[in-house]
Amino acid sequence: MTDDAFDEFSFLPDQAAELGAGTPVPHGERLALTLPDGRTLSALRYAPAATPDAAPVVTLLHGAGLNAHTWDTTILALGLPALAIDLPGHGDSSWRDDAAYVGSVLAPDVTLGMREWTDAPQLLVGQSLGGLTAAAVAASHPDLVRDLVVIDISPGIDPNGGAQQIAQFFAGPTDWASRDELVDRALAFGLGGTRVAATRGVYLNSRMRSDGRVEWKHHFAHLAAAMASPAASTAQSAHGQAPDVVARVLREGGWADLAAVRAPLTLIRGQRGYLTDADVADYRRRLPGAQVVTVASGHNVQEELPAALGTLLREHTPYPRA
Fold first, then answer.
1. CATH for 12-158+253-314?
2. Residue pair 128/105 in contact by the 8 Å Cβ criterion
3. What's the Cα-to-Cα distance from 151 to each of 60, 126, 128, rounded to whole Å?
4. At the N or C end, where does the chain have fewer CB atoms within 10 A?
5. Which of these ranges, 130-144, 190-204, 243-257, 273-287, has the smallest mean pLDDT?
6. Distance from CA of residue 96 to its chain's centroid?
């Protein structure tokens, strides 16, 4: 089967079965919005099968190197109409020529998407880079956000800490002979969970080129590989520049955005994620009104604990489960 013939929603029945009998499979559709500069912003919209036109009440933003499908199982567990956006440079959204993948730059595109595809203030959920982007959206466009949930990220974390795993993971070859090689690499880095889940994630986050080679859909892998080259590392060190794309994301300030958020704010921290106890203490000090919830997960909570995360998110919505 070619990529063009593949149904990107074909995994949903198996994911629903993994959650347990009675989990409904929603209607899913791919959306696309042409941005003012000609780039494309892409997203997935999910609604109960009986009401496929139901407007989203939850909007979700993924982390660096992922795509909107990372939320699939969480959305199944959540059981509410939802919108999952491919951040620029990821999934089916266009890459940025300036490679500026930081929250404050991505937020305007996300804002346009939310205005196009939602019709009421959202529970806005962002993980990692998506969390920094969500904070920027909530700060600048409060009318779009009813509640804000940020998952396993704060503006002040050390880029040389746990987040280095992502830079190292993507700083490899930019193309591969098969998707199995990508699955093997993900599992070797402790990413992706089970082989079944990792295979699903890799398939939805990669594409086959016309020459038969496989590459990641997102721009990050290409940037990470370029910046990991010996020549680039030497030049960056000489000029005092950030050593990799992850450091560039985390170097950006985001405390001002979080401080400006007027919606209820919750931080969900993975016990084995990127935030240290010191990071969380700093978060509480800076944002005393925020709720902090710790779960037994690594950084990608939506993939490790989708059912539990769905339950947590449902507590932030006034809507009945579908």
1. 3.40.50.1820
2. no
3. 11, 6, 6
4. N
5. 243-257
6. 17
Which residue in 263, 295, 309 sits closest to 145, CA to CA? Answer: 263
pLDDT of residue 56: 97
pTM: 0.90
pLDDT of residue 175: 86
> Quick one: 290 exposed, middle or buried, by C-beta within 10 A (0-12, 13-18, 19+)?
middle
> 225-280, pLDDT tens digit by residue?
666 544 444 434 433 444 455 666 665 668 999 999 999 999 999 999 999 999 99
Work out the pLDDT band at 4, boundaries 50, 70, 90.
Answer: low
State the Cα–Cα distance between residues 92 and 88, nearest whole angstrom.
8
Domain spans in the chain, listed from the N-terminal domain onward: 12-158+253-314
Backbone angles phi, psi at 40, to 5 degrees: -110, 135
Secondary structure of the chain in the HEC alphabet? CCCCCCCCCCCHHHHHHHHCCCCCCCEEEEEEEECCCCCEEEEEEEECCCCCCCCCCEEEECCCCCCHHHHHHHHHHHCCCEEEECCCCCCCCCCCCCCCCCHHHHHHHHHHHHHHHCCCCEEEEEECHHHHHHHHHHHHCHHHEEEEEEECCCCCCCCCCCCHHHHHHHCCCCCECCHHHHHHHHHHCCCCCCHHHHHHHHHHCEEECCCCCEEECCHHHHHHHHHCCHHHHHHHHHCCCCCCHHHHHHHCCCHHHHHHCCCCEEEEEECCCCCCHHHHHHHHHHCCCCEEEEECCCCCHHHHCHHHHHHHHHCCCCCCCC
Task: Compute the mean pLDDT over every residue in the chain, rounded to the nearest whole number.
Answer: 88
